Amino acid sequence: MEYVIELLEENKKYLERNVIKTNLMQVNMQKATKDFKKINELKRAIKILKFKNSKQ
Questions:
Q1: Which of 8, 9, 12, 21 is the most exposed place for a label (fewest CB within 10 A)?
Q2: With DSSP H G I counted as helix, E B as strand and the rest as coil, what are the percentages for the chain, rounded to 5?
Q3: Are 10 and 39 in contact (CB under 8 A)?
């Protein structure tokens, strides 16, 4: 379970860095919006998995 959480966190960090590094908000607003939605979904998934993992 922890391995999955780590993978999701790495993916989230990669997307965040990519949006900032490529200056995506100014270059392509639609792609930046999609990436931010993905980041939010990853944050939710990580939060849920951590909660389930702590219950066990």
A1: 21
A2: 90, 0, 10
A3: no
